[in-house]
Amino acid sequence: MNRTERLTAILDLLAADGQVEVDEIVEKLGVSPATARRDLDSLANERLLTRTRGGATSGSVSYDLPGRYNRDDHAAQKQQIAHAASALIPKGAVIGLCGGTTSTALAQVLSTREDLMVHSNRPTLTVVTNAINIAAQLAIRPNFKIMVTGGIVNPRSYELVGPYADSILQRVALDFAFIGVNGIEPGAAPTTNDEAEASVNSRMARRASEAYILADASKIGKRAFATMEEDTFQNLITDSGVTEEQLAAFREAGTNVVVAPAPDVV
């Protein structure tokens, strides 16, 4: 586990309980107490937590996620997908992030990337998002430029939707867009549970040079209510739970599939 992965794991522990102790980090991540303390100090310096005697608390820091985002049976797989997506993003890129738990995991990984923390006179990363929780999570990063679309808040997903969001997205150009879904099938358009989210997701993907679906393997073969634009999405990042038959079907349909490695067992 490298340093960026450790920092992300510490934030996950913190998000789950609101506090974390050095001893817990040592036990769960297999690091020394000195390393655990240095990592906590580093995250505190970046205003991602509040240090306490022997550990840290979340306090009122902006990365804190809504409670339902912390109860996810596929959290480890989504973290691996997030790291695979982060590896595609160079310093200085302009990216689009929709809402959802996997996109939120990607935002967390990006917030701890060391190369993006280096002081710069230009933004080390520009993020366009319609997710208010992601905007709040990244807004405290001084090197990041954050643009939030307008729109009406969907209380289930924390996403801004509607014509105001579409209007803003028409005026931006993205290097990459990363879109979460509720279902995806080989040779078919990806789907979400909400038609307004599907519209914004499609618009964001069209504004990007490269658009990627972020979907853990449990979403493959499932179909939700609202369909996105099929020809907009030719790239999928998923986890190692995808089967060889599913991979073959996606590739036959012309989809480029990136398979994130299996989570490390600590």
Overview of the structural elements:
The protein has 10 helices and 14 strands. By secondary structure, it is an alpha/beta fold. The chain folds into 2 domains: 3-57, Orthogonal Bundle (Arc Repressor Mutant, subunit A); 73-259, Rossmann fold (3-Layer(aba) Sandwich), CATH 3.40.50.1360. The strands form 4 sheets. Strands 6-5-4-9-11-13-14 form a 7-stranded parallel sheet, with helices on both faces. Helix 2 packs across helix 3 (33-45) and helix 4 crosses helix 5 (101-111). Mean pLDDT is 90; it is low at 60-65.
Quick overview:
With 266 residues, the chain is α/β, with parallel strands linked by helices. It is built from ten helices and 14 strands. It has helices at residues 3-17, 22-29, 33-45, 75-86, 101-111, 114-117, 132-139, 163-169, 195-206, 244-252; strands spanning 19-21, 50-52, 55-57, 94-97, 125-129, 144-148, 152-154, 159-161, 174-180, 191-192, 208-214, 226-227, 235-238, 256-259.
Order of helices and strands: HEHHEEHEHHEHEEEHEEHEEEHE
- What does the radius of gyration come to? 18 Å
Low-confidence stretches: 60-65
Q: Give the strand order, joined by hyphens, for the main sheet.
A: 6-5-4-9-11-13-14
Number of helices: 10
Which sheet architecture does the biggest sheet show? 7 strands, parallel
Shape annotation? globular
